[in-house]
C-alpha cells in the first residue's frame, strides 16, 4: 500500500509539472541592452526596475508582482527629468512628449553692431513643452519655449527716443554711474534634428523661430548725487526673428550650444541695428 501511495504521488506531480510546462509564456516587456536591471522585494511584493538602454536612455520601466494580482495593474511607465513619457511605438520609431527640456544660459556677443554694445547674457527654456519622434539614433522634435535677453550698452552711451525710434546717444558729460540696457522676452518654436553618434554623445541642429512679444529699454546715470532713470516701452521690435541653433554634447544631459541670430531685433529706422552670436550651456538639451 505504501509503494502504491508513493507511485501515485509521483504520477500526480509529473502530470502537474507537464501541465505547468505547457502554459505559454506571457511576455510583459522586452528591453534591448538595458543599462541597469534591479529586482527588489518588500514583504509580499517583488519589483523589477529597468532603466535606460543604448537605444533609449530616457526610458524607465517598472513591473511589480504581488501574490494576489500578479501585478497586472502594477505595470507602469515612470517619469524622469526632463519629464517625458513614451506615448506609442511603431516599429523602431518612438513618439515622445517632453516638458522643460533644454534649460540654457550663455553669453550674447553683438556682431555688426554699434561699438557701444557690450557682450551680454541670455537664459531660457528651449522647450517648455515639446514633441519628438525618434527612430534609432535620429530624433526630430518641435516645441515651444521661452527666452530672455539682456543686452548692455557701455562706453558712456545711453538709450533715448526720437519719436518712435530708439536711439543710442551719449550720456551728459558730468554724468557718473552710467548704464543702459535693452531687454527682450520671446517665445521659442524650435524645429531640431538630433543625431546620436555614440551612446548618448551627439549633436542637434535646427532653426528656432522667435516670437518677440515684449521688449523694453532703460537708462540710468547720476549727476551731482541725483540719480536719473527712465524706461522705454512700446518699441518697434520685429515680431518674428529666426535663429540657427547648434548643440553638441551628451544628448539628454548637457551640451554646449552656439546660436546665430542673423536678423536684426528692431525694424529698420526704429532702433539700433545689430546681429548676435550666443555661446553657452544647455542642460538636458
The shape, in one word, is elongated
Helix count from the secondary structure assignment: 1
Quote the distance from N terminus to C terminus. 76 Å
Mean pLDDT: 83
Share in helix? under 10%
Q: Please tally the β strands and state the result.
A: 16
Biggest β-sheet description: 8 strands, antiparallel, barrel
Poorly predicted spans = 6-23, 69-81
Which range does the strand content fall in?
A: over 45%
**H/E series, N to C?**
HEEEEEEEEEEEEEEEE
- Give the structural class: mainly beta
Name the strands of the widest sheet in spatial order: 6-7-8-11-12-14-15-16
- Cα gyration radius (Å): 30 Å
Tags for this entry?
7% helix, 1 helix, single chain, eight-stranded antiparallel beta barrel, 16 strands, elongated, 285 residues, mainly beta, four-stranded antiparallel beta sheet, 62% strand
Overview of this structure, please?
- With 285 residues, this protein is mainly β.
- It has 1 helix and 16 strands.
- It has one helix at 2-21; strands at residues 34-42, 45-53, 60-65, 76-77, 84-90, 93-111, 120-135, 138-153, 157-162, 165-170, 176-198, 201-223, 226-232, 240-250, 254-261, 275-283.
- An 8-stranded antiparallel barrel has the order 6-7-8-11-12-14-15-16. The protein has a 4-stranded antiparallel sheet with strand order 1-2-3-4, with no helix packed on it. Strands 9-10 form a two-stranded antiparallel ribbon.
- The chain is elongated and about 80 Å long.
- The termini are far apart.
Amino acid at each position: 500500500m505504501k509503494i502504491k501511495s508513493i507511485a501515485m504521488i509521483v504520477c500526480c506531480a509529473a502530470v502537474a509539472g507537464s501541465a505547468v510546462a505547457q502554459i505559454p509564456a506571457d511576455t510583459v516587456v522586452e528591453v534591448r541592452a538595458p543599462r541597469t536591471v534591479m529586482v527588489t522585494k518588500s514583504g509580499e511584493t517583488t519589483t523589477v526596475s529597468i532603466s535606460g538602454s543604448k537605444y533609449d536612455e530616457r526610458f524607465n520601466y517598472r513591473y511589480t508582482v504581488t501574490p494576489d494580482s500578479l501585478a497586472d495593474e502594477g505595470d507602469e511607465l515612470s517619469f524622469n527629468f526632463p519629464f517625458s513619457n513614451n506615448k506609442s511605438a511603431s516599429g523602431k520609431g518612438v513618439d515622445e512628449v517632453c516638458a522643460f527640456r533644454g534649460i540654457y544660459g550663455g553669453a550674447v556677443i553683438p556682431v555688426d553692431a554699434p561699438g557701444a554694445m557690450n557682450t551680454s547674457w541670455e537664459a531660457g527654456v528651449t522647450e517648455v513643452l515639446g514633441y519628438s519622434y525618434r527612430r534609432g539614433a535620429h530624433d526630430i522634435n518641435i516645441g515651444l519655449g521661452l527666452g530672455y535677453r539682456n543686452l548692455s550698452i557701455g562706453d558712456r552711451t545711453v538709450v533715448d527716443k526720437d519719436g518712435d525710434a530708439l536711439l543710442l546717444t551719449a550720456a551728459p558729460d558730468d554724468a557718473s554711474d552710467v548704464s543702459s540696457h535693452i531687454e527682450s522676452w520671446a517665445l521659442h518654436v524650435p524645429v531640431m534634428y538630433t543625431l546620436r553618434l555614440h551612446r548618448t554623445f551627439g549633436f542637434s541642429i535646427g532653426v528656432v523661430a522667435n516670437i518677440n512679444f515684449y521688449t523694453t529699454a532703460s537708462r540710468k546715470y547720476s549727476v551731482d548725487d541725483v540719480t536719473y532713470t527712465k524706461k522705454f516701452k512700446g518699441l518697434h521690435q520685429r515680431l518674428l526673428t529666426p535663429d540657427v541653433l547648434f548643440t553638441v554634447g551628451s544628448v539628454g544631459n548637457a551640451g554646449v550650444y552656439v546660436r546665430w541670430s542673423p536678423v536684426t531685433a528692431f525694424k529698420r529706422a526704429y532702433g539700433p541695428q545689430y546681429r548676435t552670436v550666443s555661446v553657452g550651456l544647455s542642460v538636458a538639451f
